[in-house]
Amino acid sequence: MADDELMQERLYTIPLRKLHKVPRTRRAPVAMRIVEDFITRHMKPERDGEVLRKSLDARSGSGEEKQLFIDPPVNQYIWSKGIEKPPSKVRVRALKFEDGSVIVHLAE
Hints:
Radius of gyration: 14 Å
Structural class: alpha+beta
Number of strands: 6
Largest sheet: 4 strands, mixed
Shape: elongated
Strand order of the largest sheet: 1-5-6-4
């Protein structure tokens, strides 16, 4: 990724308040899916010029390389207080490169 040129850089505050409607034993995994869906909706990661659409096949682990990468510190922040009590919002920095891939970092 170092040789790819940066196309866009954006800061987002992703609201996670809807998690209180989810059973408490599934809140942190659902929060990660909310982050992934939010970034997909706003940054539109691409593969070969086509915008990736969410489908059941994308989550089932097909052999294709993902164009959306969420940095491990984002995951650690969401899971920091356990599965039942994720934060109500998370601030992230999303970077989109010319090849259409998107990397999400925790905003500082």
